[in-house]
Specification:
Blueprint lengths: L2 E3 L2 E4 L3 H12 L4 E5 L13 E3 L3 H11 L3 H8 E7 L9 E6 L1 H14 L3 E5 L2 E7 L2 E7 L4 E3 L2 E4 L8 E4 L2 E4 L10 H8 L4 E8 L2 E3 L9 E3 L23 E5 L2 H10 L4 H4 L13 H7 L7 E6 L8 E5 L7 H9 L9 E3 L2 E8 L16 E3 L9 H19 L13 H12 L23 H12 L4 H23 L1 E2 L3 H9 L9 E2 H5 L6 H7 L8 H12 L1 H18 L17 H10 L4 H6 L5 H14 L5
Parallel strand pairs: 1-10, 2-3, 2-11, 3-7, 11-22
Antiparallel strand pairs: 4-6, 5-6, 8-9, 9-10, 12-13, 12-21, 14-21, 15-19, 15-20, 16-17, 17-18, 18-19, 23-24
Helix pairs in contact: 1-10, 2-10, 2-12, 3-4, 6-9, 13-17
Bound molecules: flavin-adenine dinucleotide (FAD).
């Protein structure tokens, strides 16, 4: 039997696994990435898009922490757009359509070239333990790999069953093989698992669709990049997405076919993604709406693959019904399906069994990240993979792990939600999940997270220096605008009047002017230019910090109040039964979720503030010094 030894093992080469393996090896740990099939590295089994509100924030945070998803996106972008521009600075975000082959190739190339990292095709079938700590992994080929930390990033492959109408068979996504043995090993170790499902749309051949009646959307005209250090590009107009809609005929076919849907026959009863419903789900939820918007999204530029994904049209109806549905769409009378749509059921690990470092509460050195934790989305997976990879590397070296708070970033919110509330349906990130949105903007992700990336060794000298110079330029400009006054004059007031802004009658601070309606940083910069012109991103940051200074301060105060609760730790194995007067629902929830801090306890649904108050008193009483 082959034996080898590593410091960190990552199981799975999807979005979470790639980030975890790159992070652990870059931090300096000897790392092994095991993947069932190396040709599915960073596979996008659904929409070929990265970003959008909240998800785009996560991608920016990955970049800030020293991960790769932003760069992989920039390297494979077909078109990119700003979303939510009319809704305020906190929620605006980038979204890119990607060439899925280029995206995969980017990650594969990185993994192959990465120092300290060995990538290997094999299936992990058993987790090996030494007492309560992991000691390694056994594989399908009979090999034993020892390690001090293992990160499981196995996505939807565990217990995967594909459904196309009444036809069901064990499978991973897109014809990949499923991987069940490892989950059986986890269940035997006492981990609780559940089942979820998700669906995808049929893929069409571009040459068989008439797109003349659709509305085309191209990339923005401005240069853009996801990566904080990335070179911004304006993308050519040789790629577009095509906006269309279903028809009343589509609706009639759905009416006639619904009884054959696995959702209706009861073949599938696992919970699907509420916010990314299949066309059948939409039909069941909104029976009166007979037209739904859809988007045709080619997976490559002209000359690449002809495959087209249809956004908002995922389905697990029988194949013949899928053909009829497709042919009912505008311009699709003769469309040919290259890959049928399907639903997939899979096993996930109930994420409240993890601590906020993403390490198992019961098996030391065992981390889980990505869809296996009940999330949905490439961005949610990659962000967790990065955090788990960092913490596995720290754990393997016996160093203190990283916990991100809810005010550190969307990643902090994601992990806190999963580990304190768990989830019974695929968890997707939204801006509404985050209570400190104004503090967690796209433009300040570097300030929030890059110092952590630097500390753990994921941000090299050149990038760090570029970043510190950027911060110096921004801070100097904020300082200048906060200390420089503009004299009132007819000339100035004419400019303000033309912009629709109120006139000034006395010397006015530039920062105060920036808070006025219709006054922009661009105007201020033209009136009294800084010594050195700021880059566009820097100007945006300065403008946002000054325009919303009052609100930002208020949110910082609220966040810091919450953080002080997060810093009151609950002793391990705390005796909740000994807390007098606590409601039994609170007691049961606290016993189940085992929160680390009073802040976490407060966020568990069903635990009341009054019970947390009682808990606080009991913790103080339990400390020897408090007696
Ligand atoms: C059909 C479908 C539709 C989806 N629709 C959407 C959507 O509409 N919107 C959205 O945001 N997201 C959607 N997703 C989710 C998105 O694709 C996933 O969230 C994302 O890919 C998860 O990344 P991951 O790294 O956690 O897992 P995956 O990308 O699934 O990767 C798992 C990896 O683990 C490997 N592996 C598994 N078990 C083992 C083992 N025992 N040993 C070795 N290797 C193993 C696999 O080979 C694979 O490389 C969909 C997914 C599917 C399957």
């Amino acid at each position: 039997m082959f034996r080898d030894s590593y410091e960190v093992i990552v199981i799975g080469g999807g979005h979470a696994g790639c980030e975890a393996a790159l992070a652990a090896s870059r931090i300096g740990r000897r790392t092994l990435l095991l993947n069932l099939n190396m040709d599915n590295t960073a596979l996008m089994p659904c929409n070929p898009a990265i970003g959008g509100p909240a998800k785009g924030h996560l991608v920016r945070e990955i970049s800030a922490l020293g991960g790769e998803q932003a760069r992989a996106t920039d390297a494979s972008t077909l078109m990119v757009r700003w979303l939510n521009t009319s809704k305020g600075v906190a929620v605006r975000a980038l979204r890119a359509q990607c060439d899925i082959k280029a995206y995969t190739a980017y990650y594969s190339g990185l993994l192959e070239r990465q120092e300290n990292l060995n990538i290997h095709q094999d299936e992990a079938i058993e987790l090996l333990l030494d007492g309560e700590r992991i000691s390694g992994v056994l594989t399908r080929h009979g090999s034993t790999y020892e390690a001090r930390a293992v990160v499981l990033c196995s996505g939807v492959y565990g217990g995967g069953v594909v459904h196309v109408g009444g036809v069901s068979f064990p499978s991973g996504p897109m014809g990949q093989t499923p991987a069940n043995a490892f989950f059986e090993s986890l269940v035997s170790l006492g981990l609780k698992t559940g089942r979820m499902r998700t669906d995808t749309s049929p893929r069409l051949n571009l040459d068989t669709i008439d797109l003349s009646e659709t509305k085309k959307q191209y990339s923005e005209d401005m240069p853009l990049a996801f990566d904080i250090w990335g070179e911004k590009r304006v993308y050519d107009k040789d790629y577009a997405c095509f906006f269309s809609h279903t028809t009343p005929e589509t609706h009639s076919i759905l009416v006639a076919s619904m009884h054959r849907s696995p959702l209706v026959t009861g073949e599938v009863d696992a919970e699907g993604p509420r916010y990314c419903p299949s066309i059948e789900d939409k039909f069941l939820r909104f029976p009166d709406r007979d037209v739904h918007p859809i988007v045709f999204e080619p997976l490559a530029r002209a000359g690449g693959t002809k495959e087209v994904y249809i956004q908002n049209f995922s389905t697990s109806l029988p194949y013949d019904a899928q053909i009829a549905l497709i042919n009912s769409l505008p311009g699709c009378k003769n469309a040919k399906i290259m890959k049928p749509g399907y639903g997939i059921e899979y096993v996930y690990i109930e994420p409240d069994q993890l601590s906020p470092t993403l390490e198992s509460k019961i098996i030391e050195g065992f981390f889980c990240a990505g869809q296996v934790n009940g999330t949905s989305g490439y961005e949610e997976a990659a962000a967790q993979g990065l955090l788990a990879g960092i913490n596995a590397a720290l754990s393997a070296a016996g160093e203190e792990q990283i916990v991100l708070s809810r005010s550190d970033g969307y990643l902090g919110v994601l992990v806190d939600d999963l580990t304190t509330k768990s989830t019974s349906e695929p968890y997707r990130m939204f801006t509404s999940r985050c209570e400190h949105r104004l503090l967690m903007r796209y433009d300040n992700a570097d300030r929030r997270l890059s110092p952590i990336g630097r500390r753990v060794g994921l941000i090299g000298d050149a990038r760090w220096e570029a970043l510190t110079r950027k911060w110096e330029r921004e801070d100097a400009e904020i300082e200048r605008l906060s200390n420089t006054r503009l004299a009132a004059s007819d000339e100035i007031n004419k400019i303000l009047f033309e912009a629709g802004a109120e006139p000034i009658y006395e010397h006015t601070l530039l920062a105060a002017m920036l808070r006025r309606k219709n006054v922009t940083y661009e105007m201020i910069e033209a009136l009294l230019p800084p010594e050195k012109k700021l880059y566009e991103d820097e100007a945006f940051h300065v403008e946002t910090e000054l325009r919303y200074a009052g609100y930002i301060e208020k949110e910082k105060r609220t966040a810091s109040r919450m953080e002080s609760m997060d810093n009151i730790f609950i002793p391990e194995q705390f005796d909740y039964d000994g807390v007098k007067g606590m409601r039994s629902e609170s007691r049961q929830k606290l016993l189940r979720f085992q929160p680390r801090s009073l802040g976490q306890a407060l966020r568990i649904s069903g635990v009341t503030p009054a019970d947390v108050q009682l808990l606080w008193v009991a913790i103080k009483m339990s400390r020897p010094s408090a007696r």
